[in-house]
Batch of 4 targets.
Target 1
Amino acid sequence: MRLKTEILGVESGGRPIVFLNKYDADELGISASGRVLLRSRKDITAIVNVATRSVRKGHVGISEEIRMMLGKVPHYIDVEISSFPKSLQFIRNKLEGKKLVYKEIYEIVKGVVDGNLSENEIASFVTALHIRGLDLDEATSLSMSMVETGARLNLGKRVVDKHSVGGVPGDKTTLLVVPIVAAAGLIIPKTSSRAITSAAGTADRAETIMPVNISNNEMKKIVKKCGGCLVWGGALDLAPADDIFVRTEYSLYIDPLLLPSIMSKKKAVGATHLVVDIPTGRGAKVKTISEADQLAKDIIELGKRLKIHTHCVLTYGEQPIGYTVGPALEAREALEVLMNESNVPDLIDKACNIAGTIFEITGRKNGYELAKNMLKTGRAEAKLRQMIGLQGGNQNIMPDDLPIGSHTLKVKARKEGQVIWINNNAIVEIARSAGAPKDKGAGIVFNKKIGDQVSKDDILFTVYAEKSRKLNRAHDLLEEINPIGVGKRADMVIHTIKESPMIKKSFVLER
Amino acid sequence: MRLKTEILGVESGGRPIVFLNKYDADELGISASGRVLLRSRKDITAIVNVATRSVRKGHVGISEEIRMMLGKVPHYIDVEISSFPKSLQFIRNKLEGKKLVYKEIYEIVKGVVDGNLSENEIASFVTALHIRGLDLDEATSLSMSMVETGARLNLGKRVVDKHSVGGVPGDKTTLLVVPIVAAAGLIIPKTSSRAITSAAGTADRAETIMPVNISNNEMKKIVKKCGGCLVWGGALDLAPADDIFVRTEYSLYIDPLLLPSIMSKKKAVGATHLVVDIPTGRGAKVKTISEADQLAKDIIELGKRLKIHTHCVLTYGEQPIGYTVGPALEAREALEVLMNESNVPDLIDKACNIAGTIFEITGRKNGYELAKNMLKTGRAEAKLRQMIGLQGGNQNIMPDDLPIGSHTLKVKARKEGQVIWINNNAIVEIARSAGAPKDKGAGIVFNKKIGDQVSKDDILFTVYAEKSRKLNRAHDLLEEINPIGVGKRADMVIHTIKESPMIKKSFVLER
């Protein structure tokens, strides 16, 4: 059917979508979510939205995605019904509990990347993976398919990488690990993500000290020159299927693709040695040590299949790492530690343990000491500054150069005692309500952490915001929730849930 | 956040969708598929699409659905982040295999109808229902929730209805059952659907003899006057959640909501007595008798919970009902039978059995004979003509008044023998390729059915099309597939699948 092309000027989330008038859709014998083939210089498969008013009979409305794929948009385009893709049958097989083989999984992943599968169908596949589970063969197939449907880097025979399963606020460890490892001569092409539900992702933190939106080619040049980089992974087209799966998983809080997601990104950068940090605790993504142990075992097995030597490090995740939460505040803290201007014991211990494990997995002895040495001698700092320069930032940047929000709210102890617990989720909520990660200068600085002695009126932590409106939002939130517990070590009650909840707070607010 | 409203002029499949610029989305702290609250005269919850180019910073693009909900569109609108709806938690619970209670299911169904749940989330729920299954309590809750989130009819203390699980081409039984039942004084407010994957739905058939797009109020008046109606259910807002679930189920070929879908529509029209036809056979939706027996048991149990007295009739579904397939051809055949101008034994038997069961379930004796009597005496025909008049059609319509496609293709026997089998799916494909259900005059007329004796060159069936292009399409398809088997009763082979398939056809084509 020959239809007049109409550019709608709307984006459809990366997927090629056409709008057909109901009349034409009926004429073609196609319903919403069906597929058509657009015959142009190249054939494009698109998913159909049916319009009753907004697109006229005889017209086909195209999304921005299709406009870009077409290049020069023809006045008329031939639209044909397209049969269901094979990948749909494979998704159905997974729904029925059948194990999928590599070829089938590859077809599905390719359908996801090419946009031939609708949101519905992808959501159904992800849900089936969650309920039915996936075994090691399937996880391997998914990882490799995700790698092969994207770009790949090739930076040498031995490439190391690190990853954190995440969930702990203030975790700026990567900002230390990458320069420590590169300073010792290893190759570590680190790609990171931005925050989705957290207060800062590593890419958000790094961006406050240097550009992180770097192309594949530039990245290769940088890594060849200085051994490492700290870039945003989102623009590199590494395992792009992952980003689409994540979008589906997001609101449902499920992540059956956790392992393939981690490992495909690592395989795509050509990693041969990998250390995975699994923060563990009530306030982390992984709650218990036995859960973390099982996850570690699975990650290591999958690593073997993908020919990536993998070690996992279980870390303490009951409270934020270091004293800061929020992109710029965290970058400042990392910079200060690298410059030996500030002593942040838990952050240093964690970074040196992870860097140390990377050293040992690649054959060096006394990894922890080697890592500490890279820090103490300033070689890690020098390496970071070289990296900053190569990525297009100011090599001489100082911690105070990073702007921090000027609106503050002090949270003070109502009574004396000890910090007994910190609620990570509440801390993230407060930092986000104050503007993080969008407002890079927003966040939280702790004066006290778990185990610290507290006197009445001591500042427990300070909230920073760039905009007073957002500080008000954080203030309102703090009236409602209780992110920190101060008391005696023997105090057992966190709070009591009554019919009308009464939260016993151990702090007062002051601006 | 106050944003300038921009009418995008696109429809978003019934769901309220806004497009935000990436900058504003980040500022609000929201990702794609997140939800926002639009503050206007009434609050509207909308699902977010993130745009990078097509919507400018400071603007909010609204879909046609939202434009309609807003009525007068304000120049600016306050957009706030909206938290995840409770229903998402309940969907997650189902994913984890937990049984859902009525309140939880109601929240989900309401979220579906109000558009507060995204396509992803609905697909995930439907998939979870398919894999985890749903028990009778959950099916009851789903049915009732679907009823309560839509319109309801109240037409009297005793209202009867019929339903077919479907899957057999040419099934025009309803066109006979409704006038037979109404002629005997029962109330039967029949709503029907249009074809999605078949060659004709009952609404498509009925539409060739009278208007079927009738409002709730008109429908009530018609039923009060003549006891029955034959209308399209799609515009009546009866159990509207069902239509949305069906859209998700469609491409995945799953239908975990089959029972609630059937029963909610019946409950919404106020049915107290129901007969469900379950066509059974290789060419029907339900393949085996034991499968049909189980389904019947479940339907009857659900009926009890919903206070609908239900009987199920298992019928022969190995070949089309009667001699015609396609909207107008089928309507002609039904009209001829009602006028006693044509004898179509299987159609008459099926219609009288189903109408008869309706009579018996409501307390009458000798239902089959009573039904047959309504047919023979012309009372059913008179009732249909009254109905046609009340629905705005021509009461004196004759079978020949229904236009049939003028392009024909005769399918003739290559050799003598007996019709051994008819492939229903292939018949539907041929009828659809010839233009049905869109072209109402397209379809198939059979001269021979299973068991009939065939001589060489006898016409087996004729394909009708309104457009020669579509007849060509049917012709091409017939070169490829084999919809009918002619041979000796003892011939056991249907066809042989070889590396290069060789289909042994028992027909030749003639135009």
Target 2
Amino acid sequence: MKADRKAVERLIKTARGQLDGILKMIEEDRYCIDISNQISAAEQVLKKANREVLKAHMGSCVAEAIQQNGGEEKLNELFTTLDKLLK
Amino acid sequence: MKADRKAVERLIKTARGQLDGILKMIEEDRYCIDISNQISAAEQVLKKANREVLKAHMGSCVAEAIQQNGGEEKLNELFTTLDKLLK
Amino acid sequence: MKADRKAVERLIKTARGQLDGILKMIEEDRYCIDISNQISAAEQVLKKANREVLKAHMGSCVAEAIQQNGGEEKLNELFTTLDKLLK
Amino acid sequence: MKADRKAVERLIKTARGQLDGILKMIEEDRYCIDISNQISAAEQVLKKANREVLKAHMGSCVAEAIQQNGGEEKLNELFTTLDKLLK
């Protein structure tokens, strides 16, 4: 992976901590909307992690492939991923 | 929380397992696109958990409030959450 | 439709005006990112219109059905729509 | 714009036709859920148009900039757009 490894790790660990918190909230039978808000917060952290991974990928792997051989294969692979995320 | 507690717990634990897998992938310096796809998969699981929580909330807390007092307060609270999620 | 008809009409007409602007930008061969940003702006307006329609629906049709007969059918119909939008 | 101009135009015109249909549905006081579904359909068409514009941009403007000067500026501009769309 080309993204800042420490930064992405930190985000994934943050989300994992949020999920542990959510499991505790479920066990304590907390209010639905509070649980929903915490799940949304964890989603936001994962989205940020995903953006970091994809941007670093474009700025390194994809850019290098473009410089070496036009990058058609890497671009198509990236487009497949973006097509799903931008649905 | 009014949603099927076991089902939501299971989804959150699935997502937590996926995050553990992602941390391992980062450590093993796996390919960016594979990591991105795994992050997206975890996001999908959290979204499903969130939908379950919110639908159960509407079908119980919100519905009860509507029957008891028109539910204005519960509806407004729900709308605030939906406004954020449907952005 | 139960939403403020004038408000929703206004949003849809705003989006339609944006689409006319985008067609003109395409004809003038404008820069990709500018066109993308305008398409995103139109999407945001439609999302706002959709939120208004759905919130008014919940606060009227769904709430009335809940008061009259528990609203199971209306809730299921709403959940089908929300399941798609919250994907 | 670098995307297939005819294809993007066709999508934008499709969405515009859908918006005209929605305005008619509002005037005829049609059912909320039907209107919501039509708004969602128009959003999907715009998202598809946006994906086409952005992918063509990456495969042409951004790729050329990467080959000519590393593309830092074009990549950052693209990242700003993707950051908003992947929120």
Target 3
Amino acid sequence: MEHKKTAKRLRCIVKLGGAAITCKNKLETIDEENLKEVSSQIRQAFVSDSTSANVLGMDWSKRPGQSEAPSFVNDFGDQPVADSESYIVVHGAGSFGHFQASKSGVHKGGLSRPLVKAGFVATRISVTSLNLEIVRSLAREGIPSIGMSPFSCGWSTCQRNMTEADISMVIKAIDAGFIPVLHGDAVLDTLQECTILSGDVIIRHLAAELKPEFVVFLTDVLGVFDRPPVEPDAVLIREIAVREDGSWSVVKPKLEDTSKPVEFTVAAHDTTGGMVTKITEAAMIAKLGIDVYITKAGTDHSVKALSGFLKGGIPDDWLGTAIRYMS
Amino acid sequence: MEHKKTAKRLRCIVKLGGAAITCKNKLETIDEENLKEVSSQIRQAFVSDSTSANVLGMDWSKRPGQSEAPSFVNDFGDQPVADSESYIVVHGAGSFGHFQASKSGVHKGGLSRPLVKAGFVATRISVTSLNLEIVRSLAREGIPSIGMSPFSCGWSTCQRNMTEADISMVIKAIDAGFIPVLHGDAVLDTLQECTILSGDVIIRHLAAELKPEFVVFLTDVLGVFDRPPVEPDAVLIREIAVREDGSWSVVKPKLEDTSKPVEFTVAAHDTTGGMVTKITEAAMIAKLGIDVYITKAGTDHSVKALSGFLKGGIPDDWLGTAIRYMS
């Protein structure tokens, strides 16, 4: 179909993990410092003249305690818009949405039950308020970010599998020079009436349709570990190879006891799937020949991952998990 | 096309005028009291058992100054969802969005100019933040409201005329029992790259496609006057008749000096079109056989308009402007 391609090749899809940008144990609380750092790193990675100190903010909203719009609004000249690579941001929910969704069981469906219906509305309010704050944070860094809710885009599922997902509007937004910011959302399901569509499933779908050069998952730990990362002997998995049939194996480091099954885990607050789901989703992306990097948000390692530097090879001092196709 | 109809006939489209729900001279400030009253009136008009004092709120977000979700979340029983008429809410921008849009000239297009591009992003941030607050206000009244942005829905214009506006998602939301809440938005334009799509144009399109029984415009004055309503002799136009060719004339009250052209006006803060635009839009709706009522938000008159009571005839004590087709 002709509209399935963007005019420029998509450089990257960035996942902002809910655990990386929200305070996971505090209801509906953004980790402002992390979010600001992540937004700044995203700008530096994708905007060509981002060495310029003159970032022109695109969030002109009233700031708390002020009654006027910010004064920099008068600083826009008539220079052309800075050249930017095209990319998409998808974020999880963290401490937004999960309470509402799990309290009501939105993922299990059944909109005729008042609790589910109210939970659907409450979940959307919570996740769209997080989306708005992320869009604002990116816009303050001069990134032309545009919030797009999967529900409003008309995306829906059938028995929790993504079926309808017209991405033509995402493509139009990219071609117009904007950065779409999508999120995990409550959506309609043709079989069970409603469910939760996770950010990771959205990314897999977008990756399959738009074939970005690479995908970066930014989370609150360094990557995938062989056991819970709080345990003293936890080993960071550095590289996973994915074969043509979708199966995958750890290639680096060489794990000593290969007879014992590895308990993959991260400390992420994520009711839509644990680490095995994450690796499985990542493996499905890697199978398409798209490198996937999982690393900690706001570090030198995330800077390297976002910049595309890792495409040439993974240096030994890079800490994170690379999931790549190996023919 | 089969998807152009909702399962139940749409009862009403409600326009919340920006001037009625925001403080028009204070940047990005909601008129909380008015918005709460309007939300409550909307619930009473459309939910069948709304005499019940037991309204179960659907906004489960953390309240300011609290760290927990509201406790009523535990009060949802397993009784079926209250029967509600189907309707759509569309709101204007008021003191949200207008500053950003007019400062940058988004309506004139030209996304390659940094000011326009930034203004587009800033406008969407501002109007979507208002949309979120309106959705929350309606949800607190137990209305299953769902925010849907025209941009995300994929709606666009060509030379500022609405061209692409797939309403299938609006229909699906209604059929699932939700109340879509749409808003004036910055959208892409195939000829001039971008523009502003006003709430009134959205309503005309939805009315033409979905044929509601009636349309209510809630504003900050009683209706359409023959001159600025602050003038002492301003006369409220009570009824306008629309003929088949779209032309319209005042039928009540009989204006004394018919030789002098009437200066229609309201004190609305509205850069997307003044009162003549509003009457022209309303006349195009009325031409389809759909009654249009313009009245002041939060009054007994708006209660009557929302309830459908005026369909039987306009009582003398109703203050507002009715715009109706007269064959």
Target 4
Amino acid sequence: MKSVDWLIIDWGTTNFRAFAMNKEGVLVSKTERPLGLLQVKNNQFSSSLKVVLEGWLGEYQHLPILMAGMVGSAQGWIDTCYVETPTSINKLARKSHSFKLPWGAQATIIPGVRYRSPLGNFDVMRGEEVQLFGLQTLESKANFVALFPGTHCKHMQINANKLSSFTTFMTGELFSILLNHSILGAGLPKQQDSLNAFKKGISESNKKPLTNQLFYTRTHRLFADIDETEVSEYLSGLLIGEELKTLTTKNIYLVGDNKLCSRYQKACQILEIQVSVIDGDDVFLNGMLQIKKALNDEK
Amino acid sequence: MKSVDWLIIDWGTTNFRAFAMNKEGVLVSKTERPLGLLQVKNNQFSSSLKVVLEGWLGEYQHLPILMAGMVGSAQGWIDTCYVETPTSINKLARKSHSFKLPWGAQATIIPGVRYRSPLGNFDVMRGEEVQLFGLQTLESKANFVALFPGTHCKHMQINANKLSSFTTFMTGELFSILLNHSILGAGLPKQQDSLNAFKKGISESNKKPLTNQLFYTRTHRLFADIDETEVSEYLSGLLIGEELKTLTTKNIYLVGDNKLCSRYQKACQILEIQVSVIDGDDVFLNGMLQIKKALNDEK
């Protein structure tokens, strides 16, 4: 482990992932633990981290650590507040919070980002902003739209190299609770892939208010307009359709894990939206590398 | 119990209610049991019913029974199918299903109703149609709109004395699963009444796609735009607002129980919709009485 020079940590509500990087910013080793915020009791963040690092790297006392995610929220280790849009990677670096760990090494937490919509509502995120700027430096584009599918999907708008606005859609979480806790998922057999049911969901989305439209998931099943095994696909299409039909561009980036991105990619194909799919981990590490450079430039 | 002439049963998914009526159609006695469809095992409907009647009335063998609700669904006692809109009370009576009970008495199940929207989607109901026609004969109106708040709220349109169309909104169920199973309800303190938070929810509803708008329930709480104790009221306003803003009339009936109707009534006041509130039980019993008369006229 001699070549490890610094550490990157993605510390979220349910997951903990750590990446050991060398001086050139190349990944040397990584680890993942079931140590999300919900698992850390009584604010034992530094001792939890110490246990992971001892088991994983042994020698780690001198390594500086860069962290992002919900670890910087009010429910996390240190509440780092939010940077307001429009924002750049330099602003994120400038507003990040550095402190000394009990074993002497330096830790830095990247702040979240907040956007106030013209209607006065706030959107917030923690973690995706790092991926976004990682993507931006990889692609060298000043203006684009990027989607980050997930529990709470983020649609981000980059204008003149700055993150100018973003919107959150609770698509993933709604899908999950509707399927697991509502009448729509009650008594379903094992679900199967179905492009037809997914397409039907997309085509029917946004034609009616969602609280009404969702009920057709029930009646389609009742009258065999969709098969019992395809309810999940129809519902997925309905919710992703509601989200994608808000887009005003026909050209986007999709950032995230393969499985979810390929579902969104299929939806975009149906809606004739051009897509570039980007691996979420790649741009996360690159984003952290860029933030590290920006932090060093400031010194 | 000599004066009891016939029985009315409202048999739903989670509730069983029975009403003993005299010859003049006046309520003599009623009972309620935790004997919804979900509690009746192995299709033991007639033996379950027998146990209730023996305990409640003793002598019941000669009494004809009129039933409505999910008891007539595929998951119920006998699948009575659906009558198509436009429909009248006479059509409901004509299409109801009569059969002999093991103890010799006659039972009749009122069918459900189905509406096919111009987009080709189906809405369905079982039980509310009885209340609707009970309301109609009480009010003697040929054209009106009636709302039946609940787990799945129904908006019904009466034209020329017939039920011409209706729409289902999953307002109640969405409210419940969002509060109990999503991040919006996570870690909330005891909730309190708040007209302001309810108003805010109504005023913000339908401005954005719901999958996006719902997330503001989270950020309003995060930034103290609404109090921790008022999240439930805001969410209720958001979902009821989405529903009520689809109305094209400014004059409606609200049918149901007091608590839920008074919540909808408040929302209508805010949206300047004129409301007549009608007790759900009254119009249910009256609807069953009218159906009984129609059945007798046919003989």
